[in-house]
Amino acid sequence: MEANNLEILNPSHDLFLHPSDNPNNTLVNELLNGRNYGTWKKFMEMALIAKNKVGFVLGTTTEPAADSPLQSQWNRCDKMVISWILHAVKKKVSGSILFSTSSRQIWLELEQRFGQSDGTKFFQVTKIYILFLKVLEILLLILLKSRDYGMNMIL
């Protein structure tokens, strides 16, 4: 065995796969449904950190060159992470990410699809609330003015 191949036998190496790691492992209790993205992402990151695989989704564990002896092991690990992600999302979500080429690509697609929508919705709701308060203020001013005007007419 070459030195690079011996490295992956070290449990702290990014490319190490424990014998209990398998594609059917479920890493989180609640599946991603779209509305729970923030908490799902946090739990998924914690699970991937515990398995020393978070670098695959964050892009810090980069793919070795095609001729590298570590290429096939990196590919195995990345496919394992893809499988874990697929088992952590609802069926309607998994269909849209099934044909992605890497766990990093899936992670970015999920972030783009669900991560920004929460912020956008919050911004829109806040904007509507502020508009509502302004309309309410205008209505109150109109009511007060009309009441004052009515009182002046009587006097």
Globular, elongated, flat, extended or rod-shaped: what is the shape?
rod-shaped
Flag low-confidence runs.
Answer: none
SSE-based structural type: mainly alpha
Q: What is the N-to-C order of secondary-structure elements (H for helix, E for strand)? A: HHHHHH
Written overview of the protein:
By secondary structure, the chain is an all-alpha fold. The protein has one domain (3-116). Helices cover 64% and strands 0% of the residues. The longest helix has 52 residues, at 103-154. It starts with a helix and ends with a helix. The mean pLDDT is 88.
Briefly, what is this?
The chain is built from 6 helices and no strands. It is mainly alpha-helical and 155 residues long. The mean pLDDT is 88.
What structural keywords apply?
155 residues; mainly alpha; 6 helices
Outline the secondary-structure elements.
Elements: H1 3-7, H2 37-50, H3 54-58, H4 71-86, H5 91-97, H6 103-154
